[in-house]
Amino acid sequence: MEYLNAYTETIAISLIIIISYFFNFVSEKSKIPSVLLLIGLGVAFQKLLNALGIDLTTYIMEALELLGIVGLIMIVLEAALDLKLQKDKKPLLIKSFVIALVALVGTALGVAYVLHVFIFDDFLKALIYAIPLSILSSAIIIPSVTSLMEKKREFMIYESTFSDILGIMFFYFVIGGAKAENTGEIVMDVSSSILLTIILSLLISYFMVFLLQKLESKVKLFFLIAILILLYSTGKLFHLSSLLIIMVFGLVLNNNQLFFRGKLKKFADPEALKHITEDFHVVTMETAFVVRTFFFVIFGMTLDFSGIGNLPSIYMALAVLAITYVFRFILLKIIVKRNITPQLWIAPRGLITVLLFFSIPAHFMDDRFNPSILLIVILATSIIMTTGLIAKKEDIEEKDELKFDEWKELDDQVEEMKKAAD
Length: 422
Prior knowledge:
Blueprint: H1 6-30, H2 34-52, H3 57-80, H4 90-118, H5 123-130, H6 138-144, H7 150-179, H8 183-214, H9 221-237, H10 242-254, H11 256-259, H12 270-302, H13 311-335, H14 351-358, H15 371-391, H16 394-421
């Protein structure tokens, strides 16, 4: 341990942040998700530590869980601050929500069935393992879709955010259901939890937005972020859907004119809240970047590649991928209908998947599930997304689609003129 001291640790932390910053440029040019690069960096650190004979396993696992929680909060808050609740976006919101919900439940049930047939005797346990494998990673998607056209970019941001929130709620719903005596009790417990969380979320959000305007100190954003983290963690202890608190606060702050109407209008200063929102966005974006960086680097340091060549694990991972993309293709074809690329290929698993796997209760843990399945799915979905983004010809497709619509409209007008002439 002579290699470790305050200076070497500071150097390591600084280098990781600097390298991650340049990974963003590499990702933008190459379309390779920065997450893959960060995981690779973590693997390199793992090899270095092993060569030096340094074992940080206990500290790494504790740091990973803590970073996962803070990262989740920051990523959802960052996404919520990007969402504008406008009438013209209503169809997009509905489509993304429906696809996120149906894809999550359908994929989870499909994967659970496969796990039940080949690994687990208990379907409930299979479902608990399947849910994390069915959740889109907003931590990967949000920074990866910046080059997409606005409509597609917003769709993917909405869908991945909804997938995160619904996935976490679904996961704890199933775990809570394992303790319940009947279905009615499960539905009642979950419904009351969600309803209570929504009411609390709105009350807390109104109070915090009002408080933001009253705080005169220039140092207040991290104070409020600390409050949000406190509320999230406290809510989790009481088994509430805490992520809703974070999302609702972001939505209320970013759409204050929608929420502060009528008699409430006098409690909001739109100009002041505009500046606060901009500051908040910068802080959450920067914090999310740092937390995401260390989470995936540390995750890379925990990876064990010894089982990645295990054939049953490879077959199981391929089954998960097949269910994911076939189900996604059908959904997009039914709901979006046309021009579904590259959205079809943007279905990476990441931070939430890893975080929920670490959250599986001890009495549900089963050695028959090979962790390499998780690793293969995470790497494969990121590589597929990368390939889809690189291969996309979105601008050409959009122009062709516009031209097709214009020609179709012109043909219709010609037909009407012919009928009128006859």
